Amino acid sequence: MLLELVDNALVNTAANKSLMSARQNAYNQVQSIPFPTSKDEDWRQISLKPLTSNNFVAAKSGDVTSIDIKNYILKEADASHIVIVNGFYRDDLSNVSGLPEGCFVGKLGDAPAHVVEAFEKHYSNVATYKSDAFVPFNTAMVRETVIVYIPKELKVEAPLQILYATDANENIFSNARTFIFAERHSDMTIVEDFVGKEESIYFMNAVTETVLSDESHVTHIKVQRESTKATHISRTASLLARGSNYNAYTISLGAALFRNEPMALVDSENAHATLDGLVIVNGNQVSDTHSIMDHLKENCTSHQLHKVIASGKGKSVFNGKIFVRKDSQLIDSFQENRNLLLSEKAEVFTKPQLEIFADDVKCSHGATIGQLSEDEMFYLQSRGLSKTTAQQLLTYGFALDVIENLPVASLREKLSHDVAELTTDSDVEVTYLES
Amino acid sequence: MLKIIDLHATVEGEKILKGINLEINKGEVHAIMGPNGSGKSTLAKIVAGHPAYEVTGGQILFEGEDILEMDPDERARMGIFLAFQYPVEVPGVSNSMLIRQAVNAVRSERGIDELDPLEFEDFIEEKLKLVEMDDKFLDRSVNEGFSGGEKKRNEILQLASMEPRLALMDETDSGLDIDALRIVSDAVNKIRNSENAFMLVTHYQRILNYITPDKVHVLINGRIVKSGGKELALQLEEKGYDWLMKDQLVNGEA
Questions:
Q1: Domain edge (last residue) among A268, A293, A313
Q2: A379–B76: do the CB atoms touch at under 8 Å?
Q3: pLDDT for A213-241, tens place per residue?
Q4: Domain count within chain A
Q5: A155: DSSP letter
Q6: Who's near A382: CB < 8 A, 6+ residues apart?
Q7: What is the value of ipTM here, to two decimals?
Q8: What residues of B are in contact with residue A432 (Cβ under 8 Å)?
Q9: Tens digits of residue pLDDT in B22-68
Q10: Is residue B181 in a domain?
């Protein structure tokens, strides 16, 4: 399926030599790697029908026809956002004037030499997923890679928002590619935000690679709020150097089918990775997270809290792989998957998968599936709160420990409201903790 | 105010209440005492509308109205309050948000203007003094990380704020140290007036040294086996429950 798309729409405009060779390699891989089927263990729980049953075409333009881009820009990122529509870079809708000097966000063609150097060294070397056709498809096809470069010793205060919007009148596919490079002792928050025209059918294939140098801190938030008829396949890979800190939060709200594969390669001592997630599925939505937390060196810590709220006929899949390699002693790893079912027809699959080859490690993991507790409901109702309000408060409370860690206030507020909207028939105004 | 007539109830098929008759008038404090497992906590929860219990017979009238079909929130808005034996932790919901919503729910039911956040601040300050609680408890998630005593005081703070007509206190005294017990009892004595009523569920006589009951009922094995004045509590303190349980066995009804 991907092969057809590649043959029909390969764009060969790359000026950069290493990019060209990466593309050529990727193109060859797409031809040799089979498309996943439900017989593959890692794809067993979901159907790729939304992807295979539609004829997708390449987007012809990045014109904005129906959605209001301004509505999606986070207020904290007023002067630190870039916008890509249907895979086309939109300079005119972007504004990075609020970013400090030395920080580069933009296209490869505009990047200074030292940024290009970092790019050439790591591009396509971080998102190394086995037997995977989607990353090569992205590499071969992507129109423009968004490059984020944070210079050493710099803390960027404003969050950077990268808005990937899909807005077309036909069933298009597009690729989003982000490359983040954090130099030594740098610190930045990056929000990758995926939105689309309501009710439209499209295929978004997104790949993000993040490279963290020594002692750097990157907070990486991915917000997936695509059209509820879209398919979004996502790979977010990170490579962590000594003492670095990578905190990733994936918020899954939209799409008919969302497949997300976060991967943290904790490849040096004293590094820390967080791969938290909040998934909300409703209607017939399917959200599938297959994560990899790979401890390649000793003395590292990791944290993974994956929370799911499943309503309607929504379906959630979680497979959390944790690897601790043979010589990676003194690892402290935490994984927890908690699932809240709000309807009888919602479905949840969970599979923690720990493969530990070192003997002096601490790895805790747990998975729970439950409903709102009768005692908690009774407690709130006995305080005069209606059933709906009580449900809203408890659902909000369930999602809170993921939401409260997001360092962007307007995003926290938005999510609070999304969570509240899950329980319908509300006639009560609910106010939240946010100031 | 509250009239319970021949109330039978089960939980998961097991009979817990086997014909309770009880009448509480306004201005009165009734103590319900009994050994563990006698059904006294169940009685309080059923009056408040806990969904886990099934009422298989009898009636509960509040202000003359049958409340058995009503949801817990409707009963709360009518003026029934339950202070929990084990207050529930609600992560993510601040105490002030809960109490303000609770207060406004009963106010709007009574046709009184709701309190906006600023008015609420003044309102709650008075109530905090009553239970000697610091206002930092308002910003914290409901009961989360509270000590046992703090949770119980938080229940009384909610009671004081919602100004119920009937307060059911389910073993509020259990686990309280002397200071906390004094604070809780003082608060109840200040809230107590000729228009409201209290039903104190307790295992021990201790709290009754601070809050003087008008009536004491002994609940054993799902039935009220003895009722009397406050002196009955002292008798129980001295003799325990065994003598009353023996009576039950003699009657062949255990």
A1: A268
A2: no
A3: 999 999 999 999 999 999 999 999 999 99
A4: 2
A5: B
A6: B48, B49, B72, B73, B75, B76, B81, B82, B84
A7: 0.94
A8: 97
A9: 999 999 999 999 998 999 999 999 999 999 999 999 999 999 999 99
A10: no
